[in-house]
């Protein structure tokens, strides 16, 4: 089975840095995705990690440690528009396709 | 930039009625998915579809649900006899290929309210 845990809520200040953690237990490992979801909207892709280490993409970076079953999303220079839920998701293989198991999401509130 | 579209954006129906949710995946994508998100809960996988047949389905996807690709562009989810607990946001997604690294692009969702 797949189990993904992440904190429910976080608050951070505009301009600051925030780290959102995710731990996972999966039967087989196929990498880890991070998605952003604004309230009432669809999830949008942020990053995909399959190898250990940090991948940087502009203000957003994602880290993976396969041995620890751990990932985090790092958001720098926070802006008000970054207020959203951040979803950690693990793909699992079906019959020729990969389905995503999502965590419950971390609701990030950015305050002035 | 190509995007997944869904109609309607909001559907209200009475318990026991049939609903059809429509999706137009990105045109060169081959894999299609339906997910749902009950208010305040996590996004859950329902079904994946490839080459005109179901690839995988979750335990949520029981006999009340069906999917179809009636033509070259549309991908539909039908719920035969809706229940109150089917009230949720339903997201369609598509991906270009089968490799796990292929990003799934999500549509804006259909909010289904069953009364």
Supply database-style keywords.
heterodimer; A: 112 residues; mainly beta; 6-stranded mixed beta sheet; 5-stranded antiparallel beta sheet; globular; B: 115 residues; 7-stranded mixed beta sheet; 0% helix; 50% strand
Structure description:
The complex is a heterodimer of chains A (112) and B (115). In chain A, the strands form two sheets. In chain A, strands 2, 4, 5, 9, 10 and 11 form a six-stranded mixed beta sheet that branches. In chain A, strands 1-3-8-7-6 form a five-stranded antiparallel beta sheet, with no helix packed on it. Chain A has 112 residues and is an all-beta fold. In chain A, 0% of the residues lie in helices and 61% in strands. Chain A is globular, with a radius of gyration of 14 Å. Chain B is mainly beta. In chain B, the strands form two sheets. In chain B, strands 2, 4, 5, 6, 9, 10 and 11 form a seven-stranded mixed beta sheet that branches. A four-stranded antiparallel beta sheet of chain B has the order 1-3-8-7, with no helix packed on it. The N and C termini of chain B lie far apart (37 Å). The relative contact order of chain B is 0.34. The chains are: A mainly beta (112), B mainly beta (115). Chains A and B meet through strand 5, strand 9 and strand 10 of A and strand 4, strand 5, strand 9 and strand 10 of B.
Chart the SSEs and their pairings.
The complex is a heterodimer of chains A (112) and B (115).
Chain A (H helix, E strand, L loop, with lengths): L1 E4 L3 E5 L4 E9 L5 E6 L6 E6 L3 E5 L2 E6 L4 E6 L8 E10 L4 E5 L3 E6 L1
Parallel strand pairs in A: 2-11
Antiparallel strand pairs in A: 1-3, 3-8, 4-5, 4-9, 6-7, 7-8, 9-10, 9-11
Chain B lengths: L4 E3 L2 E4 L5 E6 L6 E7 L5 E8 L2 E5 L7 E4 L6 E5 L8 E8 L9 E2 L3 E5 L1
Parallel strand pairs in B: 2-11
Antiparallel strand pairs in B: 1-3, 3-8, 4-5, 4-9, 5-6, 7-8, 9-10, 9-11
